[in-house]
Amino acid sequence: MKLFILFCITCFCFLSFSDGRSDPNSVGRVRAVNLGGWIVTEGWIKPSLFDGIINNDFLDGTALQFKSGKVGKYLSTEAGGGTITLAPIASSWETFRLWRIDETTFNLRDCIGRFVGMNTIGNGKDIIAEIGRPGATETFQILRNPNDLNRVRIKAPNGFYLQVKMEEIVSADYEGNGGWGDDDDDPSVFTVTIIGKLQGEFQVTNGYGPHFASQVMKEHWSTFIVEEDFKFIKENGLNAVRIPVGWWIASDPFPPKPYVPGSLHVLDNAFSWAEKYGIYIIIDLHAALGSQNGAEHSSSRDGSQEWGQTDDNIQQTVDVIKFLSSRYANSSSFLAMELMNEPLSPGVSLDILTKYYKAGYDAVRKYSETAYVVLSNRLGPADPTELFRFANGLNRSTVDVHYYPYYNNALSSFTVDEYVEYIYKNQSEQVKQLTTSNGPPILVGEWTAEWQLTNTSKEDYKRYAAAQTEVFGRASFGWAYWTLKNANIHWSLEWMIKNGYIKL
Ligand SMILES: *[C@@H]1O[C@H](CO)[C@@H](O)[C@H](O)[C@H]1NC(C)=O
Ligand SMILES: *[C@@H]1O[C@H](CO)[C@@H](O)[C@H](O)[C@H]1NC(C)=O
Ligand SMILES: *[C@@H]1O[C@H](CO)[C@@H](O)[C@H](O)[C@H]1NC(C)=O
Ligand SMILES: *[C@@H]1O[C@H](CO)[C@@H](O)[C@H](O)[C@H]1NC(C)=O
């Protein structure tokens, strides 16, 4: 059994080099926009995509706590040996992540990766947390009180409901009485609290299920970003797009479930539009098999970060890079291949990452001598120059760093002036250090003009955005805004340009 790093909901182009590297692309520095939320789903970018899912707050990766009203305690796996008990206070041991089988049927995973299941030895009514992949004896139904959806009963694989016995014991031996009655007095009723959720590609496709996902995703892909957007990008002073893709694209039209076919066709369209309007493309492997950071944007099923734990897994990722490089190598728009977005430290070690990056680099070079190979820095505790020495041994490589003052807690009490000063002083110092330390060229592959301030004016945003375009404009490879379209208006470069907040 692998170890998983669970529940880490944590929340880094181009081209005139003065360092002597030859540059057959004469585009100058990259001024790009990310096409986020297009072929790799992120619910916060387009919440409506999830509207049609039944029980859409119980998706894969939703983190739940179950409190018994009868004894006022929470289901817990903290006791030794996988025993399930009840604990007075809810924390990680009292939190369960869903694997959704269908809208009412689930597996429940605890904080160290075990699944709740029937104890197959003994009296046939004990439930435990156990290691291994879930099967029939780990499959539960969660039935919600229609008048109060947070009140639930949990039906075990033996056909009986869980119920609380005495203060700390729970067993699957309640037959049910059909009604809900006084929930607080019923030992089989639990109140659920949702303490975390994921809304990525896995969640949306598995949530709609095999009958509807394909149709919903096709509709989304063909309307969210269209040819007209590439024209808009060209006309507004940008010269490139960074396109997040998921590992399943390489097995189109037969991606493994729950993914649905068609994302490859979408990327093909992007290339033909990019060629038509003279725009460069950075393909960005945003979601690697098993998830490199446990986030929804890397299509993690339940918050686990499992990429890189087996050689197989790494080889399959290299194969995805090979597939994409060979397919687009001869396109005049193929500027760069980003081998993986935001691997998270320490779960992805530097050693494993550079081994993969070397194999990925070779895969790109097999088909293209000219494409740049983008190496994303690790998130989490990591030195921003840790890849420099490695990258210097490669031809036409660049290191991607992401700058989001929005997520910097140290700025939580900042004023508008302080934010702007932070960009001109601190952020610019970081960009300067990275561009002058004899490393590869630097791409600021993600940034955005949003902050934690509320009630700020258009002029405030204009200053903040201008500061960032100026400072990130000094990055030797260039920058890419996150993202073109977003329900949160300031994260949408399209909205920012159309409304006069950003002018390039
Ligand atoms: C690219 O074009 C060249 C010349 O036409 C051809 O030999 C090569 O096989 C093509 N590469 C790919 C990956 O299609
Ligand atoms: C870099 O390019 C040079 C000249 O073409 C070549 O000899 C060398 O092997 C290349 N290095 C790598 C790591 O691809
Ligand atoms: C900005 O840089 C200054 C000078 O290096 C430092 O004292 C300060 O703590 C930095 N501010 C933040 C929020 O990182
Ligand atoms: C928002 O800004 C306006 C104009 O500066 C001011 O009158 C108002 O009091 C502010 N509201 C809050 C909640 O700070």
From TrEMBL:
InterPro entries: Actin-crosslinking (IPR008999), DUF7910 (IPR057232), Fascin (IPR010431), GH (IPR017853), Glyco_hydro_5 (IPR001547), Glyco_hydro_5_CS (IPR018087). GO terms for molecular function: actin filament binding; hydrolase activity, hydrolyzing O-glycosyl compounds. One of its GO terms (cellular component) is actin cytoskeleton. The lineage of its organism: Eukaryota, Viridiplantae, Streptophyta, Embryophyta, Tracheophyta. This is Glucan 1,3-beta-glucosidase A. Gene3D superfamilies: 2.80.10.50, Glycosidases. It comes from Sesamum alatum. Belongs to the glycosyl hydrolase 5 (cellulase A) family. Residues 55-195 form the DUF7910 domain. Residues 1-20 form the signal peptide. GO terms for biological process: actin filament bundle assembly; cell migration; establishment or maintenance of cell polarity; polysaccharide catabolic process. Residues 210-487 form the Glycoside hydrolase family domain.
